[in-house]
Design a protein that fits this description.
- Keywords: Coiled coil.
- Residues 26-53 form a coiled coil.
- The chain is mainly α and 94 residues long.
- The protein has a domain at 10-69.
- It has one helix spanning 11-93.
- The longest helix has 83 residues, at 11-93.
- The N and C termini lie far apart (101 Å).
Length: 94
């Protein structure tokens, strides 16, 4: 906790003291507000970056799902072709 300096006794000095004291406090608060605004802006930029990264990851997952789906369809087709070829081989061999 910051201690307040000794308050002068005479009126003019006291008035100058309080004006200076309040001015310094106001400047300190304005500086703190400015710093918090910068930090807030930085956080918003970081959030936007994470949103973009999330979107990219969703696109990659979607692409992987499409490839996997195509692979499964191709696998089914290949199995069907093998059975058809085997059936035709048995039919024409006999």
């Amino acid at each position: 906790m910051v201690r307040k300096p000794a308050i002068p006794v005479d009126f003019d000095s006291r008035a100058k003291f309080w004006i200076t004291y309040c001015w310094d406090k106001e400047q300190a608060l304005l500086n703190e507000i400015s710093q918090l605004k910068k930090e807030n802006l930085d956080l918003h930029r970081e959030i936007d970056g994470l949103k973009n990264l999330n979107c990219e990851m969703e696109n990659k997952v979607s692409g992987i799902e499409t490839v996997a789906s195509s692979y499964l369809k191709l696998k089914k087709c290949l199995i069907c072709c093998i059975f058809i070829i085997a059936f035709l081989a048995i039919k024409f061999a006999g």
